[in-house]
Amino acid sequence: MTDLDLTGRKALVTGGAQGLGEGMAQALADAGAHVVVADLQDDLGAKVAEGLGEGHGFVHLDVSDDASWEAAVASAVDQLGGLDILVNNAGIEITSLLVDLDAAAVRKQLEVNLLGTALGIKHAFRTMRPEGAAGQGGVVVNVASVAATIAFPGISVYSATKSGVDRLTRVAAMESGKLGYGVRVNCIYPGLVPTAMGAGLANDVASIGLFGSPEEAVGAVIELTPSGRLGEVSDMADAVVFLASDAARFVNGVGLPVDGGMGM
Questions:
Q1: Residue range 130-154: average pLDDT?
Q2: Active-site residue numbers?
Q3: What is the reported pLDDT for 5?
Q4: Is residue 149 in some structural domain?
Q5: CB of 171 within 8 A of CB of 255?
Q6: How many folded domains does the chain comprise?
Q7: Residue 72 lies in a domain
Q8: Which residue in 40, 83, 117, 249 has the fewest CB atoms around it within 10 Å?
Q9: How far apart are CA 215 and CA 33, in angstroms?
Q10: In a domain, 196, yes or no
Q11: CATH number for the domain including 82?
Q12: CB 27: neighbour CB atoms within 10 A?
């Protein structure tokens, strides 16, 4: 057995129906974990879970709703026979210049990215702590963004919410330690990945006049990245597997950049 072997571990991945979440669910399953995919998109989420093979499942989840979290985590525990990994991946990005902010769009990003992550931590702690339904401790991996560490135009609210995810991560790790929950809490800062969300961002920053074209926007990101390329889903997924594994057993309360150096 290697330190990255997750055989017997039980994971819930939010926003797992596509993009980074789908890749993270697959990587965890490939490492031996049993995975429940959670998403609002029932058909896509169930298809991803089916593709993972036997021993995996799907649950409907609105991350901004407390009752939905309670039901989803209970279902995951029932399906898997426990829970010791939560990946808080679900998130949205709505591009806007500050002078054009729409209050409803701001609230939506706060509810999904920040409140959703906070509720995930809440229910992971309640489930994984010694008196919880799973009760064996575990790992929470939150997905922040390189946007939390750089000043990229057009994504002010998204950047603020991802900075908040970083702070939540660190406080949660301290609370877990002080209260004896046995749950490590870390986050990753993904760089730009050409998923549907990443492509949408490139189109959006061009459409509001910050760049001449989506290709120019992507080129600007690559220019800021010492590794000289965009990220890949597997780059982010492998980092999640690492943080969930015993290889990271003394890694706690940190943000791990997976951005090719863009945020250094």
A1: 96
A2: 158
A3: 95
A4: yes
A5: no
A6: 1
A7: yes
A8: 249
A9: 38
A10: no
A11: 3.40.50.720
A12: 24
